[in-house]
Amino acid sequence: MKNKLFFVALVFLLSCHKETIPPTTITLNVTYLSNQDFLLKGNVNQKCFRGFIVSGTAGAKFNDTTAATLGYDVGSGSYSMAIGLERNTVYYFKAWGMMEGTKDFVYSDEQSFKTW
Q1: What is the architecture, at CATH level 2, of domain 22-114?
Q2: DSSP state of 38
Q3: pTM for this prediction
Q4: CB-CB contact of 24 with 75 (8 Å)
Q5: 10: how many CB neighbours lie within 10 A of its CB?
Q6: So what's the pLDDT on residue 100?
Q7: N or C end: fewer C-beta atoms under 10 angstroms in the chain?
Q8: Closest by CA position to 46, among listed 28, 62, 25, 29
Q9: pLDDT per position as a tens digit, 53-67
Q10: Is 70 exposed, middle or buried (0-12, 13-18, 19+ CB in 10 A)?
Q11: For residue 5, pLDDT beyond 90
Q12: 3-class DSSP assignment, residue 15
């Protein structure tokens, strides 16, 4: 009888699984509007602080001195911002997200464009 109870308890414990939270993912779509105007569109799959980074150098992160951090708000799903930039300059764009209560940042792939 003890063996049967042990077996039932073991099967029960093994069949239980911890609910996993999917990793935070973030995407960026940059739309060229005119010579120096762009529409930045981000999308994040979880509620977090979110925004965009615009920089003149590749690889910028949140609060880098070489970058502008834009569009700070809290939410999940789509968000966007239109921006105007200086002429004849290469810019690098990223969307970013930071989970509430952490200092862990997630970034989209970086995109670059040159204004006219």
Answers
A1: Sandwich (2.60)
A2: E
A3: 0.80
A4: no
A5: 10
A6: 83
A7: N
A8: 25
A9: 999 999 999 989 999
A10: middle
A11: no
A12: helix
Give the residue among 42, 12, 44, 46 at the shortest CA–CA distance from 110: 42
Neighbouring C-beta atoms of residue 75, cutoff 10 Å: 13
- Say how far apart CA 26 and CA 105 lie, in whole Å: 10
Written as one letter, the residue type at 52 is F
Residue 10: predicted pLDDT: 43
Tokens for 78?
């789509």
Q: How far apart are CA 82 and CA 71, in angstroms?
A: 10
SS3 14: helix
* Residue 35 structure tokens: 């010579």
Q: How far apart are CA 87 and CA 36, in angstroms?
A: 6
57's tokens? 């150098």
Q: What is the pLDDT of residues 60-103, one digit of tens each?
A: 999 899 999 998 899 999 999 999 999 999 999 999 999 888 88
Structure tokens at 102: 């952490």
Other CB atoms closer than 10 Å to residue 51's CB: what's the count? 20
